[in-house]
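Late entry, copper (II) ion complex.
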Amino acid sequence: MSRKRLSLLAGITLASAVLVPAAAFGGAQAATTHTVTLKEFRFHPGTLTIRRGEKVTWLWRDQTEHNVTFHSSHSRTQESGSYTIRFTHSGTFNYRCTIHAEEGMRGKIVVH
Ligand SMILES: [Cu+2]
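Prediction complete; structure with ligand written out below:
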């Protein structure tokens, strides 16, 4: 499936939502995936710049429960594992771990 076609499909599917879990796209695995690591009560990197249509995978690497929470989407609170989102709209998307946001556990994905 071409990138253009994927983008079109995503646009239709996401008419009312900015973010959806990548799993919702089934076999659409062609997009570049970036990684953010959860470690020592921080997201590394704290700010990540990507292109529209790319994915971000968060990897839990702390011995503490964390979550990845956006306005319209969130991971489970967990001690290990991963969470992936494909970003189909450009913009700046702030997120946080709701448990440790006050301690500075916040991040940002900038989509061009
Ligand atoms: Cu946390």
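The first helix runs from residue 3 to 13. Will revisit in the morning.
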